[in-house]
Write a structure and sequence with these properties.
This protein is α+β, with helices and mostly antiparallel strands. It has a domain of 106 residues: Nuclear Transport Factor 2, Chain: A. Helix content is 27%, strand content 31%. It contains three helices and eight strands. The strands form three sheets. A four-stranded antiparallel sheet has the order 5-6-7-8. Strand 7 and strand 8 form a beta hairpin. Helix 2 crosses helix 3. The N and C termini lie far apart (68 Å).
Protein backbone atom coordinates (compact mmCIF):
# COMPACT_ATOMS: atom_id res chain seq x y z
CA UNK A 1 0.00 0.00 0.00
CA UNK A 2 1.67 3.27 -1.09
CA UNK A 3 1.95 6.06 1.49
CA UNK A 4 1.07 9.64 0.65
CA UNK A 5 3.95 12.08 0.46
CA UNK A 6 4.03 14.88 3.02
CA UNK A 7 2.81 18.22 1.65
CA UNK A 8 5.44 20.77 0.71
CA UNK A 9 6.02 23.78 3.03
CA UNK A 10 4.22 26.03 0.53
CA UNK A 11 1.21 23.71 0.46
CA UNK A 12 1.15 23.62 4.29
CA UNK A 13 0.99 27.44 4.34
CA UNK A 14 -1.88 27.38 1.84
CA UNK A 15 -3.78 24.86 3.95
CA UNK A 16 -3.18 26.86 7.15
CA UNK A 17 -4.43 30.07 5.50
CA UNK A 18 -7.76 28.50 4.48
CA UNK A 19 -10.76 29.38 6.64
CA UNK A 20 -12.36 26.59 8.66
CA UNK A 21 -15.93 25.46 8.09
CA UNK A 22 -18.24 23.94 10.66
CA UNK A 23 -16.75 21.20 12.80
CA UNK A 24 -17.10 17.62 11.64
CA UNK A 25 -18.27 14.63 13.67
CA UNK A 26 -15.01 14.39 15.61
CA UNK A 27 -15.17 18.10 16.56
CA UNK A 28 -12.24 19.06 14.37
CA UNK A 29 -12.62 21.96 11.93
CA UNK A 30 -12.41 21.05 8.27
CA UNK A 31 -11.03 23.23 5.46
CA UNK A 32 -13.72 25.20 3.66
CA UNK A 33 -14.79 24.22 0.15
CA UNK A 34 -12.36 25.42 -2.49
CA UNK A 35 -13.68 27.66 -5.27
CA UNK A 36 -13.97 26.25 -8.76
CA UNK A 37 -10.86 26.42 -10.92
CA UNK A 38 -12.20 29.28 -13.10
CA UNK A 39 -13.64 31.36 -10.22
CA UNK A 40 -12.10 34.80 -9.71
CA UNK A 41 -10.38 35.45 -6.40
CA UNK A 42 -10.37 38.87 -4.75
CA UNK A 43 -7.08 40.73 -4.88
CA UNK A 44 -5.18 40.66 -1.58
CA UNK A 45 -5.32 43.86 0.45
CA UNK A 46 -2.10 45.71 1.15
CA UNK A 47 -1.14 47.64 4.26
CA UNK A 48 2.10 49.48 3.71
CA UNK A 49 4.65 46.91 2.57
CA UNK A 50 2.63 43.98 3.98
CA UNK A 51 0.24 42.04 1.76
CA UNK A 52 -2.73 40.90 3.80
CA UNK A 53 -4.52 37.65 3.01
CA UNK A 54 -7.36 35.84 4.69
CA UNK A 55 -9.39 37.36 7.53
CA UNK A 56 -6.87 40.17 8.24
CA UNK A 57 -7.40 41.65 4.76
CA UNK A 58 -10.75 43.23 5.64
CA UNK A 59 -9.76 44.97 8.89
CA UNK A 60 -10.58 48.69 8.65
CA UNK A 61 -8.65 51.39 10.47
CA UNK A 62 -10.43 52.85 13.50
CA UNK A 63 -11.75 56.31 12.77
CA UNK A 64 -9.70 59.09 14.44
CA UNK A 65 -12.94 60.44 15.95
CA UNK A 66 -13.38 57.14 17.82
CA UNK A 67 -9.86 57.39 19.22
CA UNK A 68 -10.45 61.03 20.20
CA UNK A 69 -13.75 60.22 21.95
CA UNK A 70 -12.11 57.38 23.87
CA UNK A 71 -9.30 59.68 24.98
CA UNK A 72 -11.70 62.43 26.11
CA UNK A 73 -13.91 59.99 27.99
CA UNK A 74 -10.92 58.25 29.61
CA UNK A 75 -9.64 61.60 30.86
CA UNK A 76 -13.13 62.45 32.17
CA UNK A 77 -13.25 59.10 34.02
CA UNK A 78 -9.89 59.84 35.65
CA UNK A 79 -11.09 63.36 36.53
CA UNK A 80 -14.27 61.94 38.09
CA UNK A 81 -16.77 63.68 35.82
CA UNK A 82 -17.80 60.53 33.91
CA UNK A 83 -18.79 57.04 35.00
CA UNK A 84 -16.68 54.10 33.84
CA UNK A 85 -19.89 52.35 32.74
CA UNK A 86 -20.11 54.63 29.69
CA UNK A 87 -16.92 53.09 28.32
CA UNK A 88 -17.68 49.46 29.18
CA UNK A 89 -18.38 48.39 25.59
CA UNK A 90 -15.15 49.91 24.27
CA UNK A 91 -12.57 48.90 26.88
CA UNK A 92 -11.35 45.65 28.42
CA UNK A 93 -11.77 44.75 32.09
CA UNK A 94 -8.09 45.48 32.78
CA UNK A 95 -8.42 48.98 31.34
CA UNK A 96 -11.51 49.65 33.47
CA UNK A 97 -9.66 48.59 36.63
CA UNK A 98 -6.66 50.75 35.68
CA UNK A 99 -8.84 53.84 35.07
CA UNK A 100 -10.61 53.34 38.41
CA UNK A 101 -7.22 53.18 40.20
CA UNK A 102 -6.12 56.34 38.41
CA UNK A 103 -9.39 58.09 39.38
CA UNK A 104 -8.79 57.18 43.02
CA UNK A 105 -5.24 58.59 42.92
CA UNK A 106 -6.46 61.73 41.15
CA UNK A 107 -9.17 62.26 43.81
CA UNK A 108 -6.57 61.89 46.59
CA UNK A 109 -4.34 64.43 44.89
CA UNK A 110 -7.22 66.91 44.60
CA UNK A 111 -8.01 66.42 48.29
CA UNK A 112 -4.42 66.94 49.42
CA UNK A 113 -3.94 70.09 47.33
CA UNK A 114 -7.47 71.43 47.86
CA UNK A 115 -8.02 71.59 44.12
CA UNK A 116 -11.76 71.33 43.40
CA UNK A 117 -11.63 72.60 39.82
CA UNK A 118 -13.18 70.54 37.06
CA UNK A 119 -12.08 71.34 33.55
CA UNK A 120 -13.40 70.14 30.22
CA UNK A 121 -10.65 68.62 28.07
CA UNK A 122 -10.24 69.74 24.48
CA UNK A 123 -8.71 67.15 22.15
CA UNK A 124 -5.68 68.09 20.13
CA UNK A 125 -3.60 66.21 17.60
CA UNK A 126 -4.04 62.45 17.10
CA UNK A 127 -1.15 60.20 16.03
CA UNK A 128 -1.88 56.58 15.06
CA UNK A 129 0.29 53.66 14.04
CA UNK A 130 -0.16 49.94 13.44
CA UNK A 131 2.41 47.71 15.14
CA UNK A 132 0.42 44.68 13.94
CA UNK A 133 -2.39 44.17 11.47
CA UNK A 134 -4.94 43.65 14.25
CA UNK A 135 -3.65 46.36 16.60
CA UNK A 136 -3.48 50.16 16.56
CA UNK A 137 -1.57 52.37 18.95
CA UNK A 138 -2.64 55.98 19.20
CA UNK A 139 -1.68 59.07 21.16
CA UNK A 140 -3.96 62.06 21.68
CA UNK A 141 -2.91 65.38 23.17
CA UNK A 142 -5.61 66.73 25.51
CA UNK A 143 -5.68 70.38 26.58
CA UNK A 144 -7.33 71.86 29.66
CA UNK A 145 -7.11 75.38 31.01
CA UNK A 146 -4.51 74.35 33.62
CA UNK A 147 -2.35 71.89 31.69
CA UNK A 148 -2.05 69.44 28.82
CA UNK A 149 -2.24 65.66 29.00
CA UNK A 150 -1.19 62.87 26.69
CA UNK A 151 -3.49 59.88 26.38
CA UNK A 152 -1.95 56.73 24.91
CA UNK A 153 -4.36 54.05 23.66
CA UNK A 154 -3.78 50.56 22.31
CA UNK A 155 -6.74 49.13 20.42
CA UNK A 156 -7.10 45.58 19.14
CA UNK A 157 -9.52 44.25 16.56
CA UNK A 158 -11.55 41.58 18.35
CA UNK A 159 -14.79 40.03 17.08
CA UNK A 160 -15.11 42.45 14.18
CA UNK A 161 -14.74 45.63 16.28
CA UNK A 162 -12.03 47.78 17.82
CA UNK A 163 -11.58 47.56 21.58
CA UNK A 164 -9.13 49.42 23.85
CA UNK A 165 -6.83 46.99 25.65
CA UNK A 166 -4.57 49.61 27.24
CA UNK A 167 -5.10 53.28 28.09
CA UNK A 168 -2.57 55.49 29.84
CA UNK A 169 -3.25 59.09 30.85
CA UNK A 170 0.04 60.93 31.27
Amino acid sequence: MPTAAAPSPRRREEIAAQPLRAAGRAGVGLPAQRPLAGAARPAPATHGAITLRGPAAGIPDPHPALVTRLAVQALEVVDGTRSIAGLSGWISQEVAEHLIRMRTLHAERRTVYGDGRRTAPTPGRVAMGRPRVTAVEAAVVMHTSARSFAVAIRMEYVRRRWRATCIAVL
